[in-house]
Amino acid sequence: MNIIIKGCAEYILSEQRYKLTPGNIVWLFPGQEHQLTKTDSNFEMYVVVFKEDLFKKNQYLQEKYHMLSEQNPEGSFCRRVSLSSIEKLEKTCQSLCELNNKNILSPAYYYAGQAFGYKDNSPYLHSDPILLNAGLTYLMTVGWHIFLTEGAEEKNKALNPAVEKAIALLKAFPEEDFGLTDLAIKCGVSSSRLSRLFNEQIGSSIVDYKNKLKLEQFLDCIKQNPSFSISEACYMVGFGSYSQFYKIFKHSFGISPKAYFAD
Length: 263
Fold this sequence. Notes:
By secondary structure, this protein is α+β, with helices and mostly antiparallel strands. It is built from 11 helices and 8 strands. Helix 5 (161-172) packs across helix 6 (180-187).
C-alpha cells in the first residue's frame, strides 16, 4: 500500500499509468511489475509492505479482504480519498517508525534491500516486532476499508503502444542492448517520436531506463550468485565499465555499491 503525502509522481504498470498526488492510496500486488517515475523534488509517500502469508489467515479470506491475496487482480487500484483519512494513516506510519530504536534514513531502496531483497533471509530487526505487526495489520485493514468505501477511482491514461512495446522489448531482451534506431524500427515509429513519447510518458530517457533495468539485473545477479564480486556482477549484466556502473549506482541509491552490501 502506497500512501501519497506530498508532491507528484507516476507509477508505470504494464498497461496503465497511475498519476500520484496527495490524497491517493495505491495498492500494488506481487504479480504487478511497476516503476515509479516523474517524481518531483517534494514527493513523499509511505510504502507499507505486507507478506503474502498474512492474507492466508482465515479472517482475511472473507469477501471484503479476499482480493488482497491475489497476485495480479484486474482493475485500477489507485484511488483518491479524503486528506483527513490520509492524515490518519500518515500518523500511524509515523508512530510505527518512531517505535524503532534505530533511525530509518533515506535512500529507501537501501533499507528495502536490507529488509526484503538482495540477500536471502535478510532480516528486518525492530525493537518491538509484535507491536509493529499489530500496527501493520491496522494499516492494512483500515487502509483497505478506506480505499473501498471512500476512494474515488482516478482516470489513468494507457501507455502509447510504441512505448509499451519498447518497454516490453527492453525487459524481454536485455542482452540485445537496443539502440534508439533499432528500437524505433521494431516499435514502428521514428526515432525522434519514440524518444519524445518515452520521455513524456516514462519521465526518463531510453538510456536512463536501460541503465535502471541493468541495475535491477545486477541486484538479481548478486542474489543468485553470492560468490560473485561486485565488479564481476556489473560486467555480467552488461555495464561497459566499473566507473560507469559506480556512477549510475551512486546516483540511483545515494550510496556506493560497497556500502549498500555492507553487513
